[in-house]
Write a structure and sequence with these properties.
With about 110 residues, the chain is mainly beta. It contains 1 helix and 9 strands, in the order H-E-E-E-E-E-E-E-E-E. Strands 1, 2, 3, 5, 6, 7 and 9 form a 7-stranded antiparallel sheet that branches. The chain has a two-stranded antiparallel sheet with strand order 4-8. Strand 5 and strand 6 form a beta hairpin. The protein is globular, with a radius of gyration of 16 Å. The mean pLDDT is about 90.
Length: about 110
C-alpha cells in the first residue's frame, strides 16, 4: 500500500534534530526539546567527553526512559553503550556522566 505524497505531507512532521535549537544545561551538556504532544516530553541530550549532568536528575511518578543513540553513558558504576534502553523508576534519581561523549534520546510522560 502506498500513500499519496500530498496526504503524507499533511500527516508527517519531519525535523533534522541537528537543525533545532540546543539548550545548554551545563558544561558540556545540551538538550534539544523535540516537538511532541501534550502528554509526553521528548528530548535529545548530548554530553561531551568527560561531562557530567550538572545536577541530580530527580523523576516524578512517571519516571523516565532513555535510549543511548551513540557513545557511552555511565550511571553509577554501570556503563551503557549505544543501543541500550534504560527505564528509570518513578521517583528515582541519578546523575549521569560520560567519558567518551554520548547522545541520548528520551522521554518523560506528563500527567
Amino acid at each position: 500500500m502506498t500513500t499519496e505524497p500530498s496526504l503524507l505531507a499533511r500527516c508527517v512532521r519531519a525535523f533534522d534534530v541537528d537543525d533545532l535549537a540546543a539548550i545548554e544545561v551545563g558544561v558540556g551538556c545540551t538538550r534539544i526539546d523535540l516537538p511532541s504532544g501534550k502528554h509526553v516530553r521528548i528530548w535529545i541530550v548530548d554530553m561531551a567527553p568527560g561531562a557530567q549532568w550538572p545536577h541530580v536528575d530527580q523523576h516524578d511518578a512517571q519516571g523516565e526512559e532513555v535510549f543511548v543513540v551513540s557513545g557511552e553513558l555511565i550511571e553509577g558504576e554501570q556503563r551503557y553503550g549505544a543501543g541500550h534502553f534504560l527505564s528509570f523508576a518513578p521517583h528515582s534519581r541519578h546523575r549521569p556522566r560520560t567519558e567518551s561523549g554520548v547522545r541520548l534520546f528520551g522521554f518523560n510522560l506528563r500527567e
